[in-house]
Write a sequence for this structure.
């Protein structure tokens, strides 16, 4: 008796067809998911680009909105900061200091009296100096400070100045932080001498120390070097705060 093999052949064909159908279905599902992911990635990429553009526009709008009308914006791309000031102060001009190798850049505007406030006079100064050997000053004839590991320390390099606060050389001097911008502390070296007071900010970047000095405010009685009135100081500090609000460090 002969056995029939037709069922076996048909079975094999059926298995092949099933495998083909399953394989095609699997490929179809995979391809569809892959296209969906690609579209999602593309949409995400476009969304990220749009957000970046919006952030950039917002930053520019914020920068413009924080600058009062009629003020001048000074930008220093090399050392990564910008600040605005009233145009009445005058034009910042670069000065050369060949005998001071620590000074990398020095700009000043010799403003006319009473241009910053009604009782102000003197220079508006932006100074960029090397980190090594930088000295900060508490007052014109007072303590000199060195920056050491995040602290301001009384320096012995300028011992000829008056140590009228009884601070020991090497001791830490507490300097107020006026503001912190992008991780950079802006130190407030507000000081006064000879009947005048003045705002001075100092901050450190990876490349240098930058100090910004506003015109001083002085008393009306030059003969006795009388200090400015409380009202004049209040107006001066409010105007100084406006300038500080425009400072960007990047």
């Amino acid at each position: 008796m002969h056995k029939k093999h037709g069922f076996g052949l048909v079975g094999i064909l059926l298995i092949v067809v099933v495998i083909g159908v399953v394989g095609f279905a699997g490929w179809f599902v995979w391809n569809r998911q892959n296209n969906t992911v690609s579209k999602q990635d593309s949409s995400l990429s476009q969304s990220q680009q749009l957000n970046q553009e919006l952030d950039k526009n917002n930053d520019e709008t914020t920068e413009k909105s924080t600058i009062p009308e009629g003020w001048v914006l000074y930008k220093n791309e090399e050392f990564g900061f910008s600040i605005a000031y009233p145009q009445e102060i005058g034009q910042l001009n670069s000065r050369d200091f060949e005998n001071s190798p620590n000074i990398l850049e020095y700009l000043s505007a010799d403003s006319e009296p009473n241009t910053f406030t009604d009782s102000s006079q003197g220079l508006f100064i932006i100074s960029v100096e090397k980190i090594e050997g930088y000295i900060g000053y508490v007052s014109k004839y007072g303590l000199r400070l060195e920056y050491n590991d995040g602290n301001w320390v009384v320096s012995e390099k300028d011992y000829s100045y008056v140590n009228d606060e009884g601070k020991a050389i090497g001791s830490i001097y507490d300097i107020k932080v006026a503001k912190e911008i992008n991780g950079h502390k802006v130190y407030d070296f507000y000081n006064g001498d000879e009947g005048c007071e003045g705002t001075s900010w100092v901050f450190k970047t990876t490349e240098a120390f930058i100090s910004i000095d506003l015109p001083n405010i002085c008393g009306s009685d030059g003969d006795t070097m009388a200090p400015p009135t409380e009202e004049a100081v209040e107006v001066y500090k409010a105007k100084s705060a406006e300038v500080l609000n425009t400072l960007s460090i990047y």
